[in-house]
Amino acid sequence: MTREEILTGLYEQTLVGNGPEVLSLTEQGLGMGMEPSTLLFDALIPSLEEVGARFERGDFFVPEMLIAGRAMAGAMERLRPLLADTGVETIGKFLMGTVKGDVHDIGKNLVNIMLEGAGFEVIDLGVQVAPEKFVSAIEEHQPDIVGFSAFLTTTMPMFKANINALEKAGLRDQVIVMVGGAPVTQEYADAVGADGYAADASATVKRAKDLLAGKRALVGAGA
Questions:
Q1: How do residues 207-222 score in pLDDT, each as one tens digit?
Q2: Which residues form the B12-binding domain (predicted)?
Q3: Do residues 75 and 109 both lie within one domain?
């Protein structure tokens, strides 16, 4: 196969969620001496962006997003250490977790894949994450953004508890807070004092990039 065939195949097979073929093409590309960053930025990321665009148009639904995300995740497992070795710049660091009392993680995991595909370094704390665990992880990892995920209306109040914990620890001004999950709305996000909200994985990536750009612009302006 040619380099172009590898990239085209990666794009198309990620789009349809063919994980084994995506991994096989990734291995073939690496075996031909292709740069890990080329595979990522010229095929995998554009494909996932197209998945997001189709979701927004209503052509794709959550299952299609999930299988495409999983297909890319398999390739990322192979590429991640190679990308780190070549010093590929990440666009920001995103700390993510499902709040205390909630064990749902499908949506969170999909968001993580989309964020990683967009160039973020993602630290996933898993599910049932208590406020104090978020605080200690922020102190340890120094993320640009922290994401709180909730699937149940009964666990949504943990957003406010987490933000209060960040304020008490003196960390609130150091990190952008995003919230999301099936029952969450923009109005609720505003009410608890979050910086950002997104309704789905694709929108999360766009919102995260916008918030991060805004924060960096303020820092650059000395605000």
A1: 999 999 999 888 877 6
A2: 91-222
A3: no
